[in-house]
Write a structure and sequence with these properties.
- This protein is an alpha+beta fold and 537 residues long.
- The protein has three domains: 89 residues, Recoverin, domain 1 (Orthogonal Bundle); 299 residues, DD-peptidase/beta-lactamase superfamily (Beta-lactamase), CATH 3.40.710.10; 104 residues, Ankyrin repeat-containing domain (Serine Threonine Protein Phosphatase 5, Tetratricopeptide repeat), CATH 1.25.40.20.
- 52% of the residues lie in helices and 7% in strands.
- It has a five-stranded antiparallel β-sheet. It has a three-stranded antiparallel β-sheet with strand order 3-5-4. A two-stranded antiparallel sheet has the order 6-7.
- The longest helix has 23 residues.
- It starts with a helix and ends with a helix.
- The protein binds glutamine.
Length: 537
């Protein structure tokens, strides 16, 4: 029986290899080249630097000088342990099935956002002020480890505040949620990231702003020498990044430390309020915090780190668990509510994914269960978030159904940012009217938060109000009446939403609309009785 199993396995393995071989080879050829194999893998997001296919890459490199592989050579080159990954990638069985299309759309959004050159590089840390503002990079990694990067993806940058969720997660794993949250809150502060303020209990508001991040730093192996503490967090960053070592920018560290009055003030303020654990050395804590902010990486690495969070704490490139699932759940919750400083509420509403920004222009986005995305562009808006990062995020959720609550509206997500205005208009009005007809107020809100005018009409002059009136969607009608500048638009047949409601026998809607028209009339009379009287007369 055991030999049967061996035979069956061998047969399956050979079959898989044959499928892959056939998928790669050109129709007119019985052989494949190493570069064709690499190109096919790369098109599916499996990079030749991916350690999971290291053995195959080693074997194939012998063929790179030009010799082609027949099926037997090809089968030999595929090692058993990664044939499944390679097969899944080539048969569209990974989390992002059409990776080439995905990548194309991502790059479109990225290039579209290049034009946003507003904002300023962070000036308060001298070394950061010297960074070239034009630098711009994108990295993406899926929970199956499909990767690509684009733009200045070879440049490294400082993680700055994107170290905050990582330190928070490290602290949670080390000392547990209860202890961590007896020293730091979990409410958005509604203030800027370094504001001198604590919550009602005298604790920092949350781990995603400076005070809270300094607090989390104090909880990471406080009794060990600083060198060991630093080695420890570097080992975590490395594990999250799939084994590629992250770097350290000494001049940013020194520059930051030399200009850190506000962070010192925050630490002393917290000590005055007894917020730290007993025996905390705040000078060491601050030093450690500055070191964490000065860790460097490239967009590719940051995307893998974000993907490890998207994958519940397991790095997709190594399958190694770095954080407990509960820790990641807590961390993503706070990134969602507090990760973008005092833009967090708006970001959660319009973009709807956990993210964290840093003053270096770094932005780490996590699409749980799908992928991690890293964007880097140093110019910041007034709130300290990367200008291009925010623009990119907005378009990302226009194109893909990544918003946490987007599950009901998947069909909307195919708007290409390069579409012409006319196409965009047509798309938006179709989605708006469809949402109104099915009574989906949430979608209408989301569309209008994304800049779609709720009063827009389609080719026939039909508006969301017409559709909601026809279908008797009272809450949508009430919402639209408050937001549309024209509440009785006429469609191409001359009908208003009220005409539609009457025709369809929607009494509730007729009542709402008549009430609203009467109110408007009364108001108009009150503000300008003479003119109204004149008009009526
Ligand atoms: N190192 C920076 C500071 O402490 C981090 C702030 C940030 O990225 N928002 O001021």
């Amino acid at each position: 029986m055991s030999t049967d199993i061996v035979h069956l396995d061998q047969f399956r393995e050979e079959n898989i290899a044959l499928n892959i071989f056939n998928a790669i080879r050109r129709e007119d050829s019985n052989t494949v080249s190493a570069s064709e194999i690499f190109a096919a893998l790369e098109a599916n997001g499996v990079d030749r630097r991916d350690r999971r296919i290291r053995k195959t890459v080693e074997r194939l490199s012998a063929y790179e000088s030009g010799e082609r592989l027949d099926f037997n050579a090809f089968h030999e080159a595929l090692s058993k342990e990664n044939a499944t990954l390679i097969h899944r990638s080539l048969s569209g069985d990974l989390i992002i099935p059409d990776f080439a299309e995905f990548r194309h759309r991502m790059i479109n959004i990225f290039e579209y956002c290049r034009e946003f050159t507003g904002g300023e590089v962070a000036g308060y840390i001298p070394q950061l002020a010297r960074v070239d503002p034009e630098l711009y990079a994108l990295g993406v990694c899926s929970v199956d480890g499909q990767q690509f990067s684009h733009g200045d993806d070879d440049e490294t940058y400082c993680v700055q505040s994107t170290c905050k969720p990582i330190n928070y997660a490290i602290a949670l794993d080390l000392v547990g949620q209860q202890t961590v949250h007896s020293h730091v809150g979990r409410e958005p502060s509604g203030r800027s990231f370094n504001e001198l303020t604590l919550n009602g209990k005298g604790l920092p508001h949350n781990p995603m702003i400076n005070a809270g991040a300094i607090m989390c730093a104090s909880l990471i192996k406080p009794h060990q020498p600083l060198a060991d503490r630093f080695d420890y967090i570097m080992s975590v960053w490395r594990a999250l990044a799939g084994g590629r070592k992250t770097g350290f920018d000494n001049s940013v560290y020194l520059s930051e430390k030399a200009t850190a009055d506000r962070n010192f003030a925050l630490a002393y303020f917290m000590r005055e309020n007894n917020a730290f654990p007993p025996d905390t050395n705040i000078i060491d804590t601050l030093d450690f915090y500055f070191q964490c902010c000065s860790i460097t990486l490239d967009a590719r690495q940051m995307a893998v780190i974000a993907a490890s969070l998207a994958n519940g704490g397991v790095c997709p490139l190594t399958n190694r668990r770095v954080f407990q699932t509960e820790t990641v759940k807590n961390c993503l919750s706070l990134m969602y509510s507090c990760g973008m400083y005092d833009f967090s509420g708006e970001y959660a509403f319009t973009v709807g994914i956990p993210a964290k920004s840093g003053v270096s222009g770094a932005l780490m986005m996590v699409v749980p269960g799908v992928c991690g995305v890293a964007l880097w562009s140093p110019r910041l808006d007034a709130l300290g978030n990367s200008v291009r990062g925010v623009e990119f995020s907005r378009r990302l959720v226009d194109v893909f159904a990544f918003h946490t609550y987007a599950n009901m509206t998947d069909d909307y997500r195919l708007i290409d940012p390069r579409q012409s205005e006319i196409e965009r208009h047509a798309d938006a009005s179709v989605h708006l009217c469809a949402a109104a007809a099915r009574g989906d107020l949430g979608e209408i809100r989301r569309l209008s938060a994304n800049g779609v005018d709720p009063g827009m009409a389609d080719y026939d002059g039909r508006t969301a109000l017409h559709l909601a009136a026809c279908e008797g969607r009272a809450s949508v009608v009430a919402y639209l009446l408050d937001r549309c500048s024209q509440i009785m638009p006429r469609d191409r047949w001359g009908n208003t939403p009220l005409d539609d409601a009457r025709r369809e026998g929607r009494e509730e809607i007729v009542a709402i609309m008549e009430r609203r028209l009467a109110q408007d009339h009364a108001q108009a009379e009150a503000t300008d009785p003479a003119q109204n009287a004149g008009e009526l007369g």
